[in-house]
UniProtKB/TrEMBL annotation:
Protein name according to UniProt: (2Fe-2S)-binding protein
Domain 2Fe-2S ferredoxin-type: 1-98
Molecular function terms, GO-annotated: iron-sulfur cluster binding
Length: 108
């Protein structure tokens, strides 16, 4: 089991058990809206998450993520939610540029 905390969504906390799923799938399984323009296929960066804690609890960067890192569109502290798989507890932040208008983002 692992815990996903979304820091700027009032510390919203998700408990997940299937560690084979992507971060985006976990978010959607908990009925949370998270930007993903390409449908979660690793073809854009709109699903990016900033890693606040637990970077060591992610699988290595995927080829799609490395492509965007090489282009300068994905920082070392960011992962694509549609590609990233967690192996333990993490804390993430929704980037300002991908916040959805119907959600009240706030720090606790």
């Amino acid at each position: 089991m692992a815990r996903i905390v979304i820091a700027n969504w009032a510390e919203k906390t998700l408990e997940v058990t299937d560690l084979s799923k992507t971060l985006l799938r976990h978010l959607h399984d908990h009925q949370l809206d998270w930007m993903h323009s390409c449908g979660g296929k690793g073809r854009c960066t709109t699903c990016k998450a900033i890693i606040a804690e637990g970077a060591e609890n992610f699988i290595p960067v995927t080829a799609a993520e490395q492509k965007y890192r090489n282009m300068g569109a994905l920082k070392n502290t960011e992962r694509l939610a549609c590609q990233a798989v967690i192996t333990g507890d993490v804390k993430i932040v929704v980037p300002d540029e991908y916040k959805l208008p119907h959600i009240n983002y706030a720090m606790p």
